[in-house]
Amino acid sequence: MSDRLKPLLTLVASFVLGGGLLWLALRGVDLATVGDALAGARWGWLLPLIAIVVASHALRAWRWQLFLGAMPGEHRPVRFGDAFASLLVGYLVNQAAPRLGEFARAGNLASRTDHTFAGVFGTVVVERVLDVVTLLLALGSVVLLFGDRLAGVMGRFAENASAGLEALPVDGAILLAALAIAGLGVLAAGAWALRRGGDRVRGLVSGFRDGLVSLLRIRQRGALVASTLGIWGLY
Which of 88, 96, 101 is nearest to 27 (CA)? Predict the structure, then answer.
């Protein structure tokens, strides 16, 4: 394949893939309803909203850069533009196939840099874990501030949950048991692949581990905290 033809085919494939993802994301949408909503929208809020959304994405891309820069080994610095573009690719894929966007953004960034997919995906996992911890801390602050009001709500929730468990049919219990057995099967298959795969599987595991330990190796702790607070503040 010639050097001129390859970029052209890459561009065409990108447009085809983007168009397909947009179609998957928008299929079944009532365009008339969307038109009515746009007609009644307050357009004065649009620009501030766009600025807030872009700023939150930019902060997330910057924080991702911090994780990638803290990975073990010698790597070229990841450019902000590459991290931001890969993040947007992940969001687009999520619209068509939820949760697959995390794999898509890791793969896109790995193709743009000298990082491995496993290592980049490890940083994505760490980032999501940090988001969950931040969310739990936020919920904990709600409990501290409104604990007296939450007591009644939690009591009603516990009653409804116990009633639901009592009404759980036998088929549901069988389904849960089947899922547990399937999970054990997946773990056994993974262990078998690890033994048979040799260096390739160990390389993937090592790269994923490097991504996971990036949180412990970050030196710019202030930037990490500031970006995390900024992301959730804009949300």
Answer: 96
Pick out the chain residues at pLDDT < 70. 1-4, 6-8, 10-11, 25, 146-176, 179, 186-187, 189-207
Q: What residue segments make up the domains of the chain, in order of their start?
A: 8-24+47-234
- Name 143's Cβ contacts closer than 8 Å, sequence gap at least 6: 150
**Cα(56)–Cα(89) distance, integer angstroms:** 15
Instruction: Report which of 28, 79, 65, 78 is spatially closest to residue 220, judged by C-alpha positions.
Output: 65
Confirm whether pTM is higher than 0.90: no
The answer to whether residues 110 and 89 touch, using CB atoms and an 8 Å cutoff, is no
Closest Cα partner for 89 from 68, 69, 103? 103
Give Cα 56 distance to the centre of its chain. 14
**Helices of type H across the chain:** 5-26, 31-39, 46-69, 80-96, 100-112, 117-166, 170-197, 199-212, 214-217, 221-234
Separation between Cα atoms, residue 37 and residue 32, nearest integer Å: 9
Model confidence pLDDT, tens digit, residues 46-61: 889 999 999 999 999 9
